[in-house]
Every structure is written in structure tokens, then in C-alpha cells.
Amino acid sequence: MTHLQTAAAPETATAGSGPRPGPPGPAPKARPPAARRRARRENLAGYLFMSPWITGFLLLTAGPMAASLYFAFTDYNLFDAPRWIGLRNFTDMFADPRWRQSVDVTLWYVVVGTPLKLAAALGVALLLNQKRRGQGFYRAAFYAPSLIGASVSIAIVWRAIFSDDAIVDRAQRALFGSDVGGWIGDPDWIVYSLVALTVWQFGAPMVIFLAGLKQVPRELYEAAEVDGAGPWRRFWNITLPMISPVLFFNVLLETIHSFQIFGSAYILGGSNGTCGPADATLVYTCYLYVQGFENSRMGLASAMAWMLLLAVGLVTAVLFWSQRRWVHYEEDGR
Q: HEC profile for 163-186?
């Protein structure tokens, strides 16, 4: 009996010590050389297809941005070698009264022109969202100004329309009996012709608004009508909340575009370095162009460009921060 217990003891201890480790699993197989060569060829083909974009980005975007950042701290006139002057361009810029005038004109244009353009785009999109005959024609007709409105030829035509004794001046005399001598030559009225040209180009945000309106479920409007909600209440409580992401996108995009306005303001105001009578259309980019290419102060123009970039970045950050209060997304319940 003692002999049996002694013989069984090692087996019991071995059984209680846990399962024996099994044989090691198969080692991960290394990729064969043919697969590695095929992967390298695929990566090389991808980089070759991307090389035009990468080259263009480095030569036309990243390179000029780095150069302008360096020029912002130099005295550079496009002909002589740049000379390092530190922050003098920024101090000269802040002390320049015409620079402050350009900031005021640009802010006024952004605050007035952008909401009017978006309001026109949303209003026309609401009309085109209804089922009517000839919708395709009207959509194309309203979108067309966005394709040609930013061209130099349209700005020249716009300048002729609002000049002295032109069609707008004659209509104003006939309808209201007032004679201001044309909006182009009046410092108080020329900026309104610039805003009118901007509002006329509402086609691009209109198409985006129309796409957002198509996504609003009709059941919501039907339920609101059953509850007795009128058109204004349906618009305020259903349409605006449902298209708020689209509205935010348009506000962000059009605000950035408004800060970058140049061609129409320069042509309407004239090309003599004044940008309108009494600098009435002296938007920021117009004064930047005057300093860089007419006054040959490219260092100061580079400093102004980077200040504009910082201002647009700040406005964009504020808009993204504010969207938490008025933009509603379905996926997160906001």
C-alpha cells in the first residue's frame, strides 16, 4: 500500500501542476521575395501617379509660402537681394493709415456682402426646391453667374453699367429722381456696386443649399402641417435645423472667399493704385497688390499676406467653435 502511494505521488503532483505546454506553433511565414517586389512596384506606381501633384504642391504652394515667410522679415523690392530687417514690416504695416482703411473696407464687405449673398442663395434654392416646370433651365440660369462673375470681362461690364449716365444711373433718375452721377465715381456708392456684383454670383452656394434641401424628409413637413404650423414656422423649426450643416459649410466657404476678393474690387475701383475714389474699394488684397507690385515693397506685401492668413484662420476657428451652438448633426444628436 505504501509502495502504491509512493508510486502515485509523482503522477498526482504532475497532474496538479497544470497542463503541459504543447508543441510550439508555426512561426510566422516571411513574405516571399516576389510579394515584396510586387508591393514595391505598386508603391512606386502610386508615387509616380502622385508625382505631378507633389511637384506642384512643393513648387507652387509650399515653396512660395516658405519664401514669403522669409520675405516678410526682409526689405525686398523684387530687384535687389532681400535684406533682413526683422519686424519692421509689421510695425510699418500697423502704423499705415491706408492699411487700416483696407481692413475696415474688407470687414465691411465681409459682414455685409456675405450674408446678403447667402440669403439670396437660400431664397432661390427654396424656390427651385418646389416642383415646377423648367427647373433644369432655371437652375442652370441662376448658376451661370458663378461661372463667369469672377472674370475680368464681367467686372469691366459691371463698371460700365454703374458708370455715370449708364443704365443704372438713368434708371435711378427715372424712378427716384436722384442723380448721384454714377456709383463708380461716388465714394459712398461704389462699394455697393461691389456688393451687388458679389450677390449676383450666388449660384454656387445656391446649388449646395438645394442639395441640402433635397435631403430634408417630407414627413417632417407633413407632420408640421397637421399640427398647424405655418410656412415661417416650418422654415424656422424644420428647414434651418435640418440644413444647418450645409449652412455652416456655405458660411465658412463664402467668408473665406470674401476675405480674398481682389479682381472685381481692383477693376471697379480703377488700376491707378487708389482702388476706388477715396480708397472706397481698397480691400485688403488690393492694397497688398499695390504695395507688392506697384510700390515694389514685396517684403511688406508678404507680411500683409501672412497677417491675412492669420486673420482668416482666426475667423475659421471662431466659426468652428460656434457651430456647437447652432449646427445640428443627426449622428450625435446635436
A: CCCCHHHHHHHHHHCCCCCCCCCC
| Nearest-angstrom CA–CA distance, 325 and 334 | 9
Tell me the per-residue pLDDT of 146-205, one tens digit each, with 9 for 90 and over.
Answer: 888 677 888 888 888 888 888 888 888 878 777 667 788 888 888 999 999 999 999 999
Range 127-134 average pLDDT: 84
Could you give the CA distance from residue 45 to residue 24 in angstroms, rounded to a whole number?
40
Segment holding 305, helix H or strand E: helix 298-326
pLDDT in tens, 279-314: 888 999 999 999 999 899 999 999 999 999 999 999
Q: Minimal CA–CA distance to 164: which of 146, 148, 180?
A: 180
Residue 77: left if φ>0, alpha if ψ -120 to 50, beta else—which one?
A: alpha
Taking the C-alpha atoms of residue 159 and residue 182, their distance in angstroms, rounded to an integer, is 10
Which fold would CATH assign to domain 88-326?
MetI-like fold (1.10.3720)
Neighbours of 226 (CB within 10 A): 8
- Residue 12: pLDDT over 70: no
Query: What is the residue extent of each domain of the chain?
Result: 88-326
Q: Map residue 272 onto helix, strand or coil.
A: coil
Q: Quick check: 229 pLDDT over 80?
A: yes
Contact indicator for 190, 281 with CB cutoff of 8 Å: yes
Contact between residue 268 and residue 193 where contact means Cβ atoms under 8 Å apart: yes
Q: Which residues of 138-152 are buried (b: 16+ CB within 10 A; e: fewer)?
A: ebeebbebbeebbee
Over residues 71-91, the pLDDT tens digits come to 999 999 988 999 999 999 999
How far apart (Å, rounded) are the C-alpha atoms in residues 16 and 117? 82
